Amino acid sequence: MNSRLKDVNAEYLFEAVLSLETMEECYKFFEDLCTVPELKALSQRLQVAKMLDEQYVYSDIVRETGASTATISRVNRSLEYGCDGYRIVFDRLDEKHKNKEEK
Predict the structure, then answer these.
(1) N or C: where does the chain have the smaller number of CB atoms within 10 Å of the terminal CB?
(2) Is 22 helix (H, G, I), strand (E, B) or coil?
(3) Other C-beta atoms within 10 Å of 20: how many?
(4) In the chain, how many H helices and how many E strands?
(5) What is the rounded CA–CA span in Å between residue 79 and residue 22?
(6) Is 20 in a helix, a strand, or coil?
(7) 50 close to 76: Cβ distance less than 8 angstroms
């Protein structure tokens, strides 16, 4: 973990996120926590990461998400050289969706 990020406030935030149990709770918490543009930026970055992971090219990502090439590059650096946080989320969501389809 990035030592510049780790502090008592970040840990409290992460504990708060981990305490959420439903999609409705997530909407309520993040609507209180973030401005609409902040939340849209976060969700856009996640979508960009997903598309990069699925081997989309920058021009398609720009067209589908509206993200700037600078944002796409930043997200791509995180995918390539980051802490594998996106990978953890993608793998778990893929498994969750796979299990839903099997039921």
Answers:
(1) C
(2) coil
(3) 14
(4) 6, 0
(5) 27
(6) coil
(7) no
Please, what is the end-to-end C-alpha distance for the chain in angstroms?
36
Residue 42's pLDDT is 97
Q: Which residue is associated with the tokens 């409705």?
A: 24
- 3-state SS string for 36-84: HHHHHHHHHHHHHHHHHHCCCCHHHHHHHHCCCHHHHHHHHHHHHHCCC
- Find all residues with CB under 8 Å of 16, minimum gap 6, and list them: 29
Residue entry with tokens 């996640």? 46
CA dihedral sign of residues 55, 5, 88, 48: negative
Structure tokens at 43: 């969700």
Looking at residue 48, its amino acid is V
Q: Could you read off the pLDDT of 57-85 as tens digits, one per residue?
A: 999 999 999 999 999 999 999 999 999 99
Of 78, 47, 42, 82, give the one whose Cα is nearest residue 61: 47
